[in-house]
Description:
The protein is an alpha/beta fold. The chain is built from five helices and five strands; from the N terminus they run βαβαβαβαβα. A five-stranded parallel sheet has the order 2-1-3-4-5, sandwiched between helices.
Amino acid sequence: MRVWADPVMNILIVEDDEQTHSALMNLIRRMGHNPRGARSGGEAVDEVLKSAPQVLITDWDLGERLTGVEVAALAQNRRENCQVVFCSGNNMAALRQQTKHLHNCSFIRKPTSLAQLRQEFAAILDVA
């Protein structure tokens, strides 16, 4: 069992919206971790290739040709046990359909409060 309290855990946050990206980075830092960040699919690919994350927190729609689903597939290809957390305001049923080929996935619907995100991430991180 992996323990999320380990600050050296490799966590990558991928979010194209600057405010949401900053909020997620700060939240995970306040939870005792040192996440890496990417603001586009291209940046995310670079980060995954540098070091495949143990946990990937990503939006589905990254505002470009690469989606969070494609980034997640690459991350899980590079690190089989990568836990993926999709945070999206888009249709969750469609997202679940798009991610059927992935494993270790969790889904959080945006918008949500920081308190709710903290609770969700704590639960996800405890089992990752």
